[in-house]
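Hi R.,

Here's the chain you asked about this morning:
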Amino acid sequence: MYNQTVMTKFLNPRNAGTLRGANATGKAGNSSCGDVIKLYLLVDEEGIIDEAKFKAFGCPATIACSDIACDLVAGLQVDEALNVSSKEIFDELGGLDDNRVYCSVLAEDAIKLAVEDYYKKKAKENK
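And here is the predicted structure, written out as tokens:
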């Protein structure tokens, strides 16, 4: 059902857990299946994502997509993280079953929500 890359990321996610000092979070969920991803970002003074972590509740594909999403955004400027797409996450995993593609969309949504949260917090700081 799942390819080797998905299973490896599911069984040994490198980015699982909370992130102390995170200055951005994004939480995305799928109400029809109950999967939830919470993404934590630590963004430095220059707007570069130093680190990304996640907590997820869901199937192996949800966890694998979350882990890949963290890998893809780490080291990017915050604005550049918005370019990480569900297709890129899907491709990095070597594909997903048709009924699991939504997991990559959840991961993309979590990224976008975390970036939105970052900018909201920065706007409050600058007032």
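One quick note: The first helix runs from residue 4 to 11.

Cheers,
M.
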